[in-house]
């Protein structure tokens, strides 16, 4: 598949997702995700950040001055400064971003692990990589299998568990620091209820509709080189100095020689 056709397909998926984020369920989910992200990025200042989002921007509360939005095509770009490029070939230098957010794109990309590798590449050593995904173990995840036949966002994507993405992150040398579950709905509710949300967030129950994974680059410790003391010449008493044992041995040896000389006389 050509690059242009892939970009067109991704742009179509992004456009189709906008209808969901305008619904009551979508707005409620976005609000809880933003509340979950807030404490993580509010204290970070300076540098640059990248947001690859399927919905409205989540980085409005960040103190990072330069927030880059990604888009698959110019037609879907929200501003002239939007980064337009393939998701698995980000036009950014290595280790250049303090915060990188992938918001539900890993569920709709054919080669999602390649995009994750690129996101890991551009995240700085002190930066944080944030992944948002739909939880297949949540209440809506149980109905995702049969609703997927409808083909509408978000049911059309491939939902993965947080444990599966933990394995993916380990492959790109990132460690998961925390997994937060958010948006806890009642059985017949379309919004994230305050009572359910408070209970689920307090105990971080893995039953929320969505999860946020916080990961950082695995720190590589410098190898410790042990000093090796090697001696090329053989060890002799003169090289190590005389010991009490050595002196005593030479003394008794000399005494025996003197006794033999006396007997021969």
Q: How does this model look, in words?
A:
The N and C termini lie far apart (110 Å). It is built from eight helices and seven strands, in the order ααββββαβααβαβαα. It is 37% helix and 19% strand. With 265 residues, the chain is an alpha/beta fold. The protein is globular, with a radius of gyration of 32 Å. It has helices at 3-21, 24-41, 112-122, 144-147, 162-171, 194-203, 237-240, 244-264, and strands at 48-53, 66-71, 83-84, 97-103, 123-134, 174-182, 210-217.
Shape: globular
Please outline the major beta sheet: 7 strands, mixed
Note the beta-strand portion: 15-25%
How do the SSEs run, as a string of H and E?
HHEEEEHEHHEHEHH
What's the count of strands? 7
Name the structural class.
Answer: alpha/beta
Cα-atom radius of gyration: 32 Å
Helix proportion range = 25-40%
* Order of neighbouring strands in the sheet with most strands: 3-2-1-4-5-7-6
Which regions are unreliable across 5 or more consecutive residues at pLDDT < 50? 237-252
Mean pLDDT comes to: 82
What is the tally of helical segments? 8
Instruction: Report how far the terminal alpha carbons are from each other.
Output: 110 Å
GO molecular function: methyltransferase activity
InterPro entries: Methyltransf_11, SAM-dependent_MTases_sf
Keywords: Methyltransferase, Transferase
Pfam family, one: Methyltransf_11
Quick take:
GO terms for molecular function: methyltransferase activity. With 265 residues, the protein is α/β, with parallel strands linked by helices. It has helices at 3-21, 24-41, 112-122, 144-147, 162-171, 194-203, 237-240, 244-264, and strands spanning 48-53, 66-71, 83-84, 97-103, 123-134, 174-182, 210-217.
């Amino acid at each position: 598949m050509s690059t242009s056709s892939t970009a067109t397909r991704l742009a179509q998926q992004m456009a189709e997702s906008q209808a969901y984020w305008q619904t009551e369920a979508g707005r409620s989910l976005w609000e809880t995700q933003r509340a979950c992200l807030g404490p993580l990025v509010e204290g970070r200042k300076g540098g640059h950040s990248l947001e690859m989002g399927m919905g409205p921007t989540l980085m409005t509360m960040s103190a990072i001055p330069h927030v880059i939005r990604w888009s698959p095509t110019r037609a879907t770009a929200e501003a002239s400064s939007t980064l337009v490029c393939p998701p698995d070939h980000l036009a950014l230098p290595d280790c250049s971003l303090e915060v990188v957010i992938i918001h539900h794109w890993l569920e709709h990309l054919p080669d999602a692990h390649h995009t994750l590798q690129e996101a890991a590449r551009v995240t700085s050593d002190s930066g944080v990589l944030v992944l948002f995904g739909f939880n297949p173990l949540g209440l809506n995840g149980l109905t995702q299998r049969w609703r997927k036949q409808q083909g509408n966002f978000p049911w059309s994507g491939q939902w993965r568990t947080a444990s599966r993405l933990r394995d993916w992150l380990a492959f790109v040398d990132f460690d998961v620091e925390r997994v937060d579950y958010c948006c806890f709905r009642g059985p017949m509710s379309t919004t994230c209820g305050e009572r359910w949300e408070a209970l689920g967030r307090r105990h971080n129950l893995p039953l929320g509709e969505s999860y946020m994974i916080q990961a950082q680059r695995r720190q590589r410790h410098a190898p410790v080189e042990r000093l090796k003391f090697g001696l090329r010449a053989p060890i002799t008493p003169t090289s190590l100095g005389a010991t009490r044992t050595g002196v005593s041995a030479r003394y008794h040896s000399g005494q025996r020689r003197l006794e033999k000389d006396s007997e021969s006389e």
